[in-house]
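From the methods appendix. Each design record in this collection lists the tokenized structure first, followed by the designed amino acid sequence. Records were kept in a plain field format so they could be parsed without special tools. The example shown here is representative of the layout used throughout.

RECORD:
FOLD TOKENS (283 positions):
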């Protein structure tokens, strides 16, 4: 098992980096005592599965133990553990500004009264680890999406691999879903409700689907919907969006919306690039 060690200057974005790793499917463990890292690595290895992805966050919150961090890292290497060190850094000026804006205490605040003094001390403590790091990311002028993309590149992850999509059919008469990011109204399409033999069925049944999709308007709308969503997905992913809910509604939520939701789900699922969920709220 190969795991990631995420460390760096306090305020440089370690928490954001771990959040990104968590979104990418990593099991993240933060702020453990440095001395326990080898024991943790052994435990994780003994529990390893093929899908294991683990990230460990280490920083000066460990206190005095952090002075021995380089020795701990060397011990991990000597024991044959496979790991990367990702080091988050930023300029002293940017770190100072971030602390002033958030008004949070620096982890080394007990050693000095001025934040800038604590930043300089922390940099001295971390320099040996930074020198040993496999990847150093300077977040001084990075937005969150830029940090996310940097980590994905380091891990060679697909830029859209952490986007979870829910395609949700619903009926307007029962209210619109509050969590929908995109909402489409398909009440203009032919309505199977007025066909006696179709009224008791849903869009999951072939006769209803065939009835709805035989319309030229339905076919054209479905294609334009698929084209637009396919265009949007990689752009949402590039912005760091991790969850997208696409609502498709008709009057009762049983026929037309279910049919179009199924069509869209099948098209997006065929791309093989996203995790897609399908839910029929009112069917």
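DESIGN:
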């Amino acid at each position: 098992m190969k795991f990631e060690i995420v460390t760096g200057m306090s305020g440089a974005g370690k928490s954001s980096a771990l959040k990104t790793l968590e979104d990418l499917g990593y099991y993240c463990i933060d702020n453990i005592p440095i001395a326990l890292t080898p024991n943790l690595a052994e435990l994780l290895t003994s529990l390893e599965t093929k899908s294991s992805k683990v990230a460990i966050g280490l920083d000066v919150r460990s206190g005095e133990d952090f002075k021995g961090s380089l020795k701990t890292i060397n011990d991990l290497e000597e024991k044959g553990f496979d790991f990367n060190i990702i080091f988050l850094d930023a300029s002293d000026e940017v770190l100072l500004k971030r602390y002033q804006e958030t008004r949070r205490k620096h982890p080394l605040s007990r050693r000095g009264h001025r934040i800038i003094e604590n930043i300089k001390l922390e940099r001295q403590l971390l320099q040996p680890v930074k020198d040993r790091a496999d990847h150093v990311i300077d977040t001084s002028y990075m937005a969150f999406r830029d940090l996310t993309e940097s980590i994905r590149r380091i891990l060679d992850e697909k830029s859209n691999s952490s986007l979870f999509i829910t395609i949700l059919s619903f009926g307007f008469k029962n209210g619109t879903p509050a969590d929908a990011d995109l909402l489409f109204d398909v009440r203009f399409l032919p309505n199977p409700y007025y066909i006696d033999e179709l009224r008791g069925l849903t869009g999951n049944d072939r006769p209803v689907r065939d009835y709805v999709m035989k319309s030229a308007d339905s076919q054209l709308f479905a294609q334009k919907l698929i084209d637009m969503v396919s265009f949007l997905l990689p752009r949402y992913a590039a912005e760091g969006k991790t969850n997208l809910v696409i609502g498709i509604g008709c009057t009762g939520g049983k026929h037309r919306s279910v049919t179009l939701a199924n069509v869209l789900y099948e098209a997006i699922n065929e791309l093989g690039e996203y995790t897609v969920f399908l839910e029929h709220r009112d069917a």
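APPENDIX NOTE: The chain is about 45% helix and 20% strand.
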